[in-house]
Structure formats: C-alpha cells, structure tokens
Design brief:
heterodimer, A: 240 residues, mainly alpha, Fumarate Reductase Cytochrome B subunit, 12 helices, globular, B: 514 residues, 22 helices, 9 strands, disordered C terminus, binds iron/sulfur cluster
Chain lengths: 240, 514
C-alpha cells in the first residue's frame, strides 16, 4: 500500500516537475528580448558569452564580486548539493558507474557541507537587517525544506540505516513500471516526502533561477548591436 | 568601511567610505514624488491624461503584455532568490537608507503584484510569497519609488542572475503611463522633441544664432575661424549631440571641443536642426514606441542631409540608445559608409585621430587642473566604444591623459563598470527631486573627496549631459566650485593647438612632445 502511494506520488511529481519546467522554459525561450541589454563590458562573440555564462554558473562570478559571504555559503551549498545528487545516482543505476562509486565517500562530506552552507545563508537571512527586510516566509520555508532534506539524508547514513538495497530496488522498479516494496522506515519516508515537496515547488517558486539564469538577457546577449541588427518579431510589425 | 589615514600630513584623519552601508531608515523617502504630467503632455505620447476609470484592468493587461513582449520582465520577476547581494549596491539606498531603495526591494514593489495575479503561489498563498493586491496606494508607491531609480544598472552588475532593476523600473513607469500617471519632466521633454526636435524646444533660428555666436567666440579666443555648420546638405558627418551642449555649462565647452577636433581633422560635418537632440527620454519611461519615434528623427535627418556617417556627442543614455538600440529602432543604415560603425562616439573619433597623430596638444594648458573621470552609468554598463569590451573606459581616459598632465582615478569600486550614478540620471534631473538628487550623489562625491585628499584633485570630467548638469548643481554642496565638472572635449578644447594658431611656438612644441 505504502509502496503504491509513493510510487504514484513519484510519478506524479516527476511529471509535474518536467512539464512545469518545460512550460516555463518554453515561455522564456518564446518571449523575445526586444532590445540589446547585455551588462557591459560584455563579450563580443557567442563563444565569449558561453564562457561568461559558464563562469556565472560554475563560479558564481557576479556574486563573488558582490558579496564574499553570500558567495561562500551559496557556492558551498550548490556544489555540495551537486556532489550529493551525483552520489545519489547509485540508487538509480545498475551497475553503478565507476565515477559514481568513486565519489561516494566525498558525497558524505558534501552532505555536511551542504547543510553548513544552508545554515550560513539562513543565518544571514536572520541576522543581516537588509536581508531580513527582503525575506518572505517562503524564503525561510525553502531553507527549512532543504535543511530537512539534508539532515534526514545524513540521518539515514549515521543514525538509522534503512535497507538501502530495497530502496534501490524500489526506484529501479519505477523505471520499469513495477512497484517493488519500499521499506517503511520513518526517516526514509520523511526524506522522500520532502524531496517530493521540493519537486513540486520547483517550477512554481524562486527555484526557477536554475533555468532563469540562462535566459537572462543582461548575461546571455552578445555585445554586437552595431554589427548585427537585433529585432523582435513584434517590433518588426511596427515597421510595416 | 571608513578608515583612518595615518599618513596624512596634518596627522591621522578619518576617511569616509563612499560605499558605506547605512542603517535602514524605513519610510525615509516615502511620499517623495515628482510632478505629474498634464493631460496634454500625456496625450502627445499616446497615454491617457489622467487615471483611467478601469485602471486596474488596464494595469494588469499591461503587465500581461510586458510578460509576453519582454523576456527580461518575466525572467527577472521569476528568478530573484532574495540573496541580498544587490541590497547595498544602489547609490540611492546608500544615500537615503530607505530600504525600498534597495534594488531587490524596489523590484519587489512590482514583483508582489506580478505574483498575486500571474503566479500559482501568489494566487493561492499570497502571504507566503509576499504577494499583495493592486490598489491605488500601490500605484502611488510605485510612482514614488520608481522615480527614485536612475536606471543606472549598478545592481545588475552584482546580481548572480544579472537581474536589472532598470528593466523593472522602466516596466513600472510604462504601466503607470498606460493608466494615466506620467511624470511631468520626462514626458514633457519627449513631447518637445516630437514638436521641435530637441529637449529645450530650441527652434532652428535660435539654434543657428547660438552656433554663430559660438563661432565668434572661438575666433576671438584663438584667432582661427572654426565652423559649427547647421543643416549643411552633403556634409560627410552628421553630429547628433544633446541639446544641453548648445547652452549649458560645461556642456558648451565640450561642443567647442568637438568643433575644434573636426576642424583639425579637416572633416566636413554638420548639425541638424531636425535631429538637434541626442537624448532620448523614451528610454527612461520604457516606451519602445516613443523611443523609436525619436530615433527615427535621426535616421530621417541623416537621409535628408545625405551624410555618410553619424557621430554622437557626449551624452550617457543617448549613447546607450545610439550604440545599443539605434540599429534596432531605426536601422538598417545601409545607406551610410560601411567603413565606419553606425553610430560612432565622438570619443572614438577623437581618439582615433590622436592615435594617428593628427591632433597636436599643449597639455600644460590644463596644468591648473588636477583631474579625475566619472564613468557615466549608461556608457559604462550599457554600451561600448572601440572594438574591445571595456573600450568605453579606456578611450575617454586615453584622451584625457593625452590632453592633461594630472589625471587620477577614483576608488576602483566606484568607477568603470562599478561606477556610481551622478544621482540625476534616468529622468530624475528635475528640481522637484532635488533632495533625492543630492542624497544620491553622496557616494560619488565621497569618492571624489577621497582623491581630492590623496591627490589634490580639483576637477572631474564626464561624458554625459545629465551628469554634467547634475554635478554643476550638487558639487557646490560638497565644497567644490560649480565649474569643477568639465566636459571631456572641454579638456581637449583647452589643450588642442589649432593649425595656424598664434602661440609661443617653441615652448608649446616642447611640451607637446614631452
Ligand atoms: S542580487 Fe539578484 S537575486 Fe539576489 S536579491 Fe538582488 S535581485 Fe535578487
Ligand atoms: S538601476 Fe541603479 S538606481 Fe535603479 S535600483 Fe539599480 S542601482 Fe539603484
């Protein structure tokens, strides 16, 4: 019974996440940027823009220039999260890829780093007057959700280990449309439920910054307005 | 952070930090509003004259339209994570302490409405995500705080997603215009350009007289006849310059500088009475249509006069519209000489001549000046000069170094792409916002005071008509003379040696060579 509920929930949440994100991305992609607005100095070639974007996404370059504390906590959180996610691949692949096996131990450290980064961000939200001013309840909830996911995950490693083989069988089963029994450890169920919530809020919350950053005209436009005429379709209509 | 200068000749002294973060002063600038536009001025721009009956539907429909037409609007409203990195980057926040002048908080004034009506979370859980209903009070709050943003884009440099509050401000002003609430200063000026051709409402006759006076002045001054041609068909170059260059100080000295440069280059050039304005306030109100209409005047002037090149004079936002948008709004310019970029900046033109050794200078004529350079926001963060990124920082400095002996930059965190707005940009250069203008200028003025302390800097050069006007108004408040703000081409004008000009030949040539 439990397994069926969770299986259905995971199917539904995945569908919602994929469709929701695809819909948003399609909207961003379809909406024209009527004018050239790269924040200059900006790259003058496509390749340069790819590099600029890569520096933003990998190094958080602008944030680094802006505020070292936010950069430190934010960067640690995001890259720890990335490692943790990669580590989780072992629950979804059989045989487990070599590199996924290789990063297993680091993934554990990353779990701690991730929670530490989140704690730092949360502390700033509470302690720095300016950031407190711009914070909404949803911003606290988002941090709470991520911290809880991190802690429940670490809890399964260090406090109450569920039958990980069965968990893996459950998820591999989902790919084949079979429902295998899911262990009923409370900590596991908490972890999975929170992840479900995260998947559901992703396309309707500020987590949209993940696709959004790639569509930001100030960062993704080439600085070549004198050489190449840039014209939005609706603006072309005005010229008729 | 403010620091203690231990090495100062008069003993240790306190050096204030231009970027010092103030404590929050909630409501400090609440209710500050520029005058609203009269119905006839609104009508000229295609906006309703006063608040329309069904303002709420109109405003929401406008928001939906913006979300459909402008990717930045949607992406920026969606992606902000409230990280707070931008909170201390706005000069108006630094100068006033009002938290609603923090860029993200300024965006939130509009984001809260967008969320309420256009997002799932805001429709169903408004309290959770800070969404709120659109009311007349909200419109008034918008009117106030979206006229406390100079659209300078400093915040956008520092945001991890490049979120540009200027885009949100423009959108908000556009929504306000669409329901009938317009700003007098900007909208009146746009109307004047449509009617007469420039912000001042200077008619062709008056313009011609002004230019003739200037020609006489130059001749009295130098003994050389330097022309300022108007409406000359068949000239090679059309110069489009902010109309402030025709009458305001120190702008006019810049205009004299351009004329001398053209003279020395032997160029055939002309001004146009039809396009006697480089400024395009359509940008400030976020109106593509109005901006386009003004830009098309420049195209028409170029066609009618049969010129081959277009060059822009010193003006910040005008250079943004020219460099980044002119091709979009009024292009393609295939009838112009393809060997030159369209348009060019006067600094690009002058620097090219200097590099090719075509201009001779006596730098010592600027020796009474110890100079720094104020990067204007729109030039720095929304345009370029030359072929390399950052040319907009290099080229004006190169020119200044070529024409004066004492040049010192201000704190690196307050120049180039991190430059601080003069406090009067974005359509805020109006007396009814004087309090805001002074407060907004404070960070820049503090940075200037630093170099005055350290290097004895006496003057600051700028390449923007708004910056120049704003500084000549506010600098006296900070202990500088009104004429401490100079045009870049005024410095050029001071130092340039015109061919045939009577000088102490030997002396000047030595100095020019050194
Ligand atoms: S820096 Fe960008 S993401 Fe962060 S709060 Fe400001 S606008 Fe939002
Ligand atoms: S664009 Fe400039 S004036 Fe406007 S919020 Fe950003 S920093 Fe402030």
């Amino acid at each position: 019974m439990l397994s069926v509920i969770y299986a259905l929930l995971f199917y539904a949440a995945t569908a919602f996440l994929v469709v929701g994100l695809a819909w948003k991305i399609a909207r961003y992609a379809r909406t024209p940027a009527p004018l050239k607005i790269p924040t200059t100095p900006a790259p003058v070639t496509r390749g340069g823009v790819v590099l600029r974007m890569a520096r933003e996404v990998v190094l958080f370059e602008s944030l680094f220039r802006s505020n070292k504390w936010i950069w430190l906590f934010g960067w640690v959180f995001h890259f720890a999260l990335l490692l943790v996610l990669m580590r989780h691949l072992r629950y979804f692949t059989e045989p487990v890829w070599f590199w996924v096996r290789f990063i297993q131990p680091y993934g554990i450290y990353a779990g701690f780093a991730m929670v530490a980064g989140l704690a730092g961000l949360w502390a700033r939200r509470v302690l720095v007057e300016r950031i407190r001013y711009i914070t909404n309840p949803s911003d606290h909830l988002m941090l709470a959700l991520l911290v809880a996911i991190g802690l429940s995950g670490l809890g399964m490693r260090f406090v109450a280990r569920p039958d990980i083989i069965a968990v893996k069988a459950f998820f591999l089963g989902l790919f084949r449309l079979q429902i295998n029994p899911l262990p009923a450890d409370p900590i596991l169920l908490v972890h999975l439920t929170l992840v479900l919530v995260l998947m559901l809020v992703f396309p309707i919350s500020k987590l949209l910054h993940v696709p959004g950053v790639f569509f930001s005209p100030t960062r993704n436009q080439v600085d070549n307005p004198r050489e190449v005429r840039h014209l939005a379709p609706w603006a072309a209509e005005l010229e008729r | 952070m403010a620091t203690l200068d231990m090495d100062h000749p008069d003993g240790p002294r306190f050096v204030p930090d231009p970027l010092e973060i103030p404590d929050l002063k909630c409501g400090a600038m609440e209710g500050l509003k520029p005058f609203t536009a009269a119905p006839e001025h609104q009508a000229k721009l295609g906006f309703p004259g006063e608040l329309v009956e069904n303002w709420k539907e109109v405003a929401l429909a406008k928001m939906a339209e913006l979300a459909r037409k402008n990717r930045a609007f949607q992406v920026y409203l969606d992606t902000c994570v409230k990280c707070g990195a931008c909170t201390d980057k706005c000069h108006y926040f630094l100068g006033t302490g009002d938290p609603k002048n923090m860029p993200v908080a300024r965006q939130d004034l509009l984001r809260s409405i967008y969320r309420r009506y256009f997002t799932f979370a805001g429709k169903h859980f408004p309290w959770l995500v800070g969404a709120r209903d659109l009311t007349e009070d909200v419109l008034q709050e918008w009117y106030s705080y979206y006229h406390q943003c100079s659209e300078c884009r400093r915040c956008s440099v520092f945001c991890p997603y490049g979120i540009d509050t200027a885009e949100i401000t423009m959108a908000a002003r556009e929504i306000l215009d669409s329901v009938g609430i317009g700003q007098k200063y900007a909208n009146e000026i746009i109307g004047k350009v449509k009617d007469i051709g420039n912000n001042l409402g200077l008619n062709p006759k008056a313009l011609r007289a002004t230019l003739e006076d200037l020609e006489e002045d130059i001749e009295d001054d130098t003994g050389i006849s330097v022309r300022l041609p108007l409406d000359e068909k068949g000239a090679e170059i059309l110069l489009v310059t902010p109309s402030a260059d025709f009458f305001a100080e120190p702008h006019i000295d810049g205009l004299i500088g351009y004329a001398k440069v053209f003279h020395e280059a032997g160029a055939s050039w002309t001004l146009s009475s039809y396009a006697s304005e480089a400024a395009n306030f359509g940008l400030f109100i976020g109106s593509y249509e109005n901006m386009r209409e003004l830009a098309l005047r420049i195209r028409k002037a170029a066609e009618d006069l049969g010129v081959r090149r277009i060059i822009f004079g010193e003006c910040g936002h005008a250079w943004r519209v020219a460099y980044s948008y002119l091709n979009t709004l009024a292009g393609p310019f295939d009838f112009l000489d393809p060997n030159y970029p369209v348009p060019q900046h006067i600094c690009e033109y002058t620097w090219d001549l200097i590099e090719r050794g075509k201009l001779k200078f006596d730098r010592s004529r600027n020796d009474h000046i110890r100079l720094t350079f104020h990067d204007s926001c729109n030039v720095a963060r929304a345009s370029r000069m030359g072929d390399k990124p950052g040319g907009q920082f290099e080229i004006p400095r190169n020119i200044l170094r070529a024409v004066c002996n004492h040049f010192y930059d201000m704190d690196r965190d307050t120049i180039m792409e991190s430059t601080l707005c003069c406090g009067g940009g974005g359509g805020l250069l109006t007396d009814d916002l004087m309090e805001l203008r002074k407060k907004g200028a404070t960070p820049r003025m503090t940075a200037l005071q630093q170099v005055t302390e350290e290097h004895g800097v006496t003057h600051m050069a700028a390449i923007c008509a708004i910056c120049k006007t704003q500084f000549s108004k506010v600098m006296p408040e900070f202990g500088y003379e009104m004429d401490s703000i100079v045009s870049v081409h005024q410095m050029v004008s001071n130092a340039i040696i015109l061919t045939g000009q009577e000088t102490d030949e030997d002396e000047t040539e030595d100095k020019a060579a050194g």
